[in-house]
Structures are given as C-alpha cells and as structure tokens.
Amino acid sequence: MNNIIYTSREELDELRNKKLRAQFLLCVQEVPFYKELYDRHGINADVVHTMRDLTSLPIVDKSVVRDRCLHPLYDKRRCLKSRSSGSTGEPFYTYFDRRSWFMKKYWVKYRARRACGMRFGDRVSIIDTDGDQALKKKNRLFALLFPFLNLRAFSIFDPLSITIQKIRTRKPTIIYSMPNYLFRLAREMERDGIPIDSVRLIFTSSEYLEKPVRSYIEKTFRAEVFDVYGSTEFKEIAWECERHEGYHINEDEVICEIVKDGVPVATGEIGDIVVTDLNNKAMPLIRFNTQDKGMLIDTPCSCGRTLALLKIYGGRASDNIYLPTGELIEAFRLTTSIEYIAGLLKYQIVQTSYDALFIKVITDNDTAGDEVRKIIEDTTHHTMQVDIERCESIELEKNGKYKVVKNSIDKS
Fold it and tell me: What tens-digit pLDDT sequence spans the chain (412 residues)?
C-alpha cells in the first residue's frame, strides 16, 4: 500500500473506480439519505461505474447532510467521530468506522510524512487545540502506536514563552501545527533572540498558508515547511512534497472535483473543491462541497509520484467581500493579489461596511502597507475606502484559528 503513491496511473484509476462503485452501491442500496436523494433525481444502481459518472450525482453540503447520511448498521456510539471547528458557522460531526478512521488518521498521514522526509527516530512535537485531558490521552496513544517516532502533543493555548521553553527542552526535529500559531511562535522567537535550531521539518495544516507566512516561518526556524490540506469530514485530503508544485491528492482515499455553480470546470480553472470519500462506510460522503477553493493541475509533479496535484486558494475559514455595486469578490482574488509584496509578513482583510475595508498588516518595512492599499483599491475597482493598520498581532477567532478575509457586515 505504501507504493500507491508511485503506482501506475492505470492501476490507480482502476483501484479508484472499484472503490467508487462499491461506495456508491452502499449508498444507493443501504443508506436511507442517499436512497431518497437519488430516487428524487431518478438515479439507480446502474448510474455510476467509473469516476466519469460522478457528475450524474447531485452535490451535497453540510446544510443538507448533517448526520443524515449515517449507515443504519453503524451506531453513533460505537463510531469514532470528529467535530469541525465551526469556521463556517456550522459545527459538524463526521462519524467513521474504525478501520477507515485508523487508515485516515494514522496510516495515510504517516505515509505522506515519510514521503516528505520523516525518519525513524525523529522527535515530533504536535501543537494543537486539545485540552489537557485530551492531550494526555493523545500522548498515551502516540506512545502506544508510534514508539519509533517519539511523538508529543502540546497545547496551542499555552503562553508562547512556555511553548518555546518546551520546544527548546525537547529539541524536536519535526513540528506540526497551524500556520498562524507557528507565525506567532516565530515572532516571539525573533524578539527573544534565541533561535530553535533542532527543527528540520515543519508541517502546517487547518488554515490557509499564505506565502509570506510560509517564508517567515522557514526563515526563523531555518526549516522546510510542508503544508497539508484536510478537513474534518475526510481527514487528510492532499499534501505537499519536497517539490512544492501543488498538493498530492490521496487518491486511494478520496476523489477531488473542481466545480463552479455545480458544473465541473476544466483542469486549470479555479472553483469549489468537491470531495467523494472512497472508504468510510459509517458516514459515506459522495460529492460533498467542502466550500474551499482550488484548482486541479494538469501536469504531473516532477517528483515522479503518481498522485494528482491540487492547488489551494484561500479556504472555508475566509469570507467573500461585496462591493457597493453588489459584485462579489472571492477571497482568493484578494489574497493572491498581495502575497508577493516585499516585506508583507501577515495580513487580515476585514469588510466593515459595504463601502469600507479595514486591513491589518504585519510588515518588516514601511512601504508594504501602502502597496497593499493600492492593490486592494485596484482589485475592488476603487469603490471602497481602504484603511491600513500596521500591527504586531492579529486576533484569532474563538476556535483558535483566524480568517484571512473576514466579512463583519451586520446583515441582521
């Protein structure tokens, strides 16, 4: 199974078609939610045989699914589950059968980390949002499952100085956390003036990784950053390799489509990322709109791995902006326009009214803020007042994350 990332395209597609057919039959024949949904659309068991047939099926999202697509033979109380952070305003539980949970939670992640250079004997520090009791349980599980990796989890809610002290004491060779947190940690390290020189690899996930943030983390830790794209509903969907030409999709686990207004777009076009799970039997998700933006890349990665490449734009934690004319400006149009500005380390774009944007920037020069203002004014067709504030930190959301683009208009 480890060779799946290098298997031939023909063998991989054959495996995926086989898994998709089995998952579709499970849904159309045994899961009441899908039986009712597909019956309304005149869909029977003969409709889907290969991945090309997926477009015959309706797209679903959290507002439709909730826990209604649970397989009746799986008891919620016996399933393993994940809860979304609620970054879209819709907290959501996903239930997994035990085999798919183990494969997604541990094996698929381990396979990808090994491909990126993780070795036996590495000391791995994971900094996440769990509470004290959950951390203790997780650390016991790590010691049982991965004694050869020396994993240890810390809390993202500890003071930065305490976390830095723990890292310096433990001397991890790998760190795994959210990019915004690692950025704050790096800023604290720089102010402290004492570098952490044990880290070789850094893995980020759970938030959109802006290019300036990646560069700053790599420079401060003097370590290579690999970003991971995943979700509560599917666990790890795709990951960066050492070439950083896109995100390798875990194609034996999921099928990724890119659609716009419900219609698949051509490779190379940006749209909504729609994912189909190939293995979870307890709560199968077929053509589930993640509400993230992405693009499929039509050229294979130069690393030689078979797995197709995905590019990520923004994320579901970001909002859209509306001009006074009513035109919608998607978050990725704003973020991709300013991320190459020299000296811009981090930023947040907040819409405070229909004709005003407030932008917080963290910079290492005096001109980056003015460049941000000019580009955003151009992008919004000079229809909005754009105010810039240079600051030292950006406030997090209640779930411990932060929105790169945030719409704060009161719509009540």
Answer: 447 888 999 999 999 999 999 999 999 999 999 999 999 999 999 999 999 999 999 999 988 887 789 999 999 889 998 877 554 445 678 999 999 999 999 899 999 999 999 998 899 999 988 777 888 888 898 888 778 788 999 998 889 999 999 999 999 999 999 998 999 999 999 998 888 999 999 999 988 888 999 999 999 999 999 999 999 899 999 999 999 999 999 999 999 999 998 899 998 999 999 999 999 999 999 999 998 999 999 999 999 999 999 999 865 556 788 899 888 887 878 888 898 898 999 999 999 999 999 999 999 999 999 999 999 999 999 999 999 999 988 887 766 667 888 888 865 4
Residue 203's closest CA among 117, 330, 285? 117
Residues 11 and 88 in one domain: yes
Three-state DSSP class for 382?
coil
Q: CATH number, domain at 345?
A: 3.30.300.30
Orientation of helix 331-338 relative to helix 368-379, angle to 10°: 140
Residue 64, domain member (yes or no): yes
Count how many domains the chain has. 2
Domain boundary among 292, 313, 334: 313
Could you list the residue range(s) of the whole structural domain that residue 286 is in? 7-101+230-313
String of b and e for 331-366 (b: at least 16 CB within 10 Å)?
A: bbbbbeebbebeebbbbbbbbbeeeebbbbbbbeee
Torsion of CA 319, 322, 326, 332, to 10 degrees: -70
Note whether 274 and 332 are same-domain residues. Answer: no
Torsion of CA 349, 404, 374, 376, to 10 degrees: -80
Domain boundary among 313, 342, 360: 313
